[in-house]
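Session log. Operator J.P. requested a structure for one protein chain; no other inputs attached. Running the standard single-chain path with token output.
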Amino acid sequence: MGKGIAKMRRVGFTGRMWFEFMDKFRKRETPPADTLVLGSRRVPLLMVRNPRARRYVLRMRPDGTPRVTIPRGGSAAAAREFVERNRPWLERQWQRMQSRSQPPATLQIGSTVLFRGEFVSIQSDRPGFIQFGGETLPVAVPVVDLRPAIEKHLRQLAAHELPARLIELAGPHGLAVKRVTVRGQRTRWGSCSRRGTVSLNWRLIQTPGHVRDYIILHELAHLRQMNHSSRFWQEVERLCPDYPAAERWLKDHRELLREMPAAR
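Structure written below.
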């Protein structure tokens, strides 16, 4: 080979080098779980490292398992201390999950349904009609399950009220929406497209007014920031200064609102 041209050398891996190299490509193992006593039961405490996380985050999974996220540079010991500092919150979440009974398979007279943020009782003062939360609607007689009739009524209320409320909130902020739809999303409270279409979940009719307004303003904020960046959340805070309270309500009631409609 001519001068100035480096000779190619075959480099082999030693056993140690090979395992260190391959370790980078191994599938991440399931993180070990510690334990924690909640109430009178010992439950697993799942610790998950996330190099993109900036802080420790504690969540209660739907199965009742506490999960703490460890940020880059954090430690399991610090995560445990973080969990202990937030034990009162964990205890409340645990008690809520333990006391929450499964919703009935059917809705009948005397059952309760979540409506505008409150559980209201289903009553009947005359044959062929039921009332709940100030609403009256006709039902077939006899009826085995009131759930379909109540869900239909709630969907109709949502289709009438939610678009009107969105237009009312958008006006003062100079936000133009091309189209509003009300749907039955299973995983989202709402969405906003780049074309200016806002879709809202009909179950918002079951939430308190401030929660409904927050979701609407959240989607309207996407008309200015089509992302979830820091600028987006600054816009949300400008439009809805008390949005953290609404977020907490949604977090505390996410299981209930998965029902159609949420009831107990």
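Operator note: Residues 1-32 have pLDDT under 50 and may be disordered.
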